[in-house]
Amino acid sequence: QVQLVESGGGLVQAGGSLRLSCAASGRTFSIYAMGWFRQAAGKERERVAAITWSGGSTYYRDSVKGRFTISRDNAKNTVYLQMNSLKPEDTSIYYCAADLDGSSRYGSWGQGTQVSVSS
């Protein structure tokens, strides 16, 4: 299986930036795509962004388009989420996840990293 560990979360002011990292290990050859999800208190988990491992095709949730950028470094088995112009509504626990077969059923998840944005 694939193991994932996120880092880079923290507390920032509205309008600020953070860069999240997710390092993958284990059976990384199985990865089809990597995604970033978030779940705020009292809300459903939502997919923020995703990227295919080979081609680098990206997906973004409408609410983060133009502000967030997902990227990957295949050699380092690492995916990043650059978050700019952060808003209080971006406050959430952010999770990295791996789609292992192209089904969008993300079978491997990281432990999460907290992002808090103050107004």
Give descriptors for this structure:
119 residues; mainly beta
Tell me which oligomeric state these chains represent. Answer: single chain
Please, what is the average pLDDT?
96
The helix/strand series, from N terminus to C terminus, equals EEEEEEEEEEE
Tally of strands: 11
Number of helices: 0
Low-confidence stretches: none
Distance between the termini: 40 Å
How many strands, what sense, and barrel or not for the largest sheet?
7 strands, mixed
As a percent range, the share of strand residues is over 45%
What Rg do the Cα atoms give? 13 Å
Specify the helix fraction band. under 10%
Structural class call reads mainly beta
The gross shape turns out to be: globular
Written account of the structure:
The protein is mainly beta. It has no helices and eleven strands. The strands form two sheets. Strands 2, 4, 5, 6, 9, 10 and 11 form a seven-stranded mixed β-sheet that branches. Strands 1-3-8-7 form a four-stranded antiparallel β-sheet, with no helix packed on it. It is globular and about 40 Å long. It starts with a strand and ends with a strand. 34% of the residues are buried.
Task: Outline the secondary-structure elements.
Blueprint: E1 2-7, E2 10-13, E3 18-26, E4 33-39, E5 46-52, E6 58-60, E7 68-73, E8 78-83, E9 92-99, E10 106-109, E11 113-118
How do you describe this structure in short?
With 119 residues, the chain is mostly beta strands. It is 0% helix and 55% strand. A hairpin with a 4-residue loop joins strand 7 and strand 8.
